[in-house]
Description:
This protein has helices spanning 2-9, 16-27, 33-74, 90-98, 132-135, 164-170, 210-213, 221-227, 247-258, 267-270, 272-310, 312-320, 325-356, 358-369, 390-416, 420-424; strands at residues 78-82, 103-118, 121-130, 145-148, 159-163, 177-188, 191-205, 216-220, 236-241, 262-266. With 427 residues, the chain is of the alpha+beta class. The chain folds into two domains: 2-67 and 275-424, no CATH class; 84-260, no CATH class.
Amino acid sequence: MRYTHANSKNKTMFQPKELFIGLRYTRAKRKNHFVSFIAFISIMGVALGVFALIVVLSVMNGFGNELRDRTLSMTSHATLTGFDGTLTNWEQAAEQSLRQPGVVAAAPYIRKEVMLSNGSRVSGALINGVIPDEEATVSEVGNKMVSGKLTDLVSGEYGIVLGRELARALGVYEGDRVTVITPQASVTAVGIMPRLRRFKVVGVFEVGMNQFDSAVAYMHIDDAAKLFSMGDRVNGLRLRLKDLFAAPQITHDLDRDLGEHYWVRDWTQQHKNFFKALRTEKTVMFIILLMVIAVAALNIISTLMMTVTDKEADIAILRTMGIRPGSIMAIFIVQGAVIGLFGTLIGVALGVPVAVNVFDIVSWLEQLFHTDFLPADVYYVSDITADVRFYDVMSYAVSAFVITILATIYPAWRASRTLPAEALRYE
Length: 427
């Protein structure tokens, strides 16, 4: 008897009869059609929440990837410089850097802020003095040229390559000339004058990020050294790494091996605040969209509460037949779980295809409404792409389903508290 009694206490809540009755309640034709309508709304609400989670956060994944790739195509995986912001013997530093496992290329650069002018048009710009052949090993700017070539930058010829929006702002094209005005001053017979030099536009590039296209220009490193009186010094080295996601470890090892005279920073440090803001925004969007599912879960509570009221007599009969309160609770959890499961599956079935084809859908909508949802002069990236990750989709679906299960607990508990005598008194 003791063994039988103990074994009965250890029976699981979800037995076959609870599952059978719960599914029967879900399929049954109710007298109150309003309950069925609320159940349908609950399913659609959960589906909408899961759909929004998958599409919005997949687009944010793609947006983050696109920003990272375009940013790193113009900057570098890591930079090496001295603590005073310059390197005197950059060839030796480059040779030492290339000995470090994980570093595949190194190129020197000079970076200064200047003013560019063409007649009455003036614009600020960030000048990058580079060696074209070396720069091609650490950045993709040479592949982003829409006019001319990066290799057209020849030492001593004072050529300059402009971003497309910068060239447009200055009103210049390939072959035109612009004046580069530096913040440094020269002492002349007529007083202190800003240093300036005429440069010929030999090319135009377009990255697709307004941040670079409207404010960055390139010239040969020898011309930059003369313009800024750098002599044989450079500002630093751009480093290209074999694995950009291993950048923190590689730069840490390189910084340790080079010693205290150098300062090494990787892309996760240079753009730390920017990418941290993206991650924070994604987390906040995840929480907000989960609230949509939580609102749908409130409808599940309403559905089950009305079902409990409608089925009080059935619950009482089941209790008099010996079914325990825990089994009654399991019946209604099954009913709510079916609603949550259908809503989640519908949301996944709709969300994944839309996220995968979001670029084509947005392009069609832009043509239909004759508008541009992401103008290039406002947003960093003007194209919408999505990165649908299996792990993320599964986590969104599981999160939604767990919320719907939690929503069933209170109505199911109320059903388990039904007293047979009170429920059958007026039947």
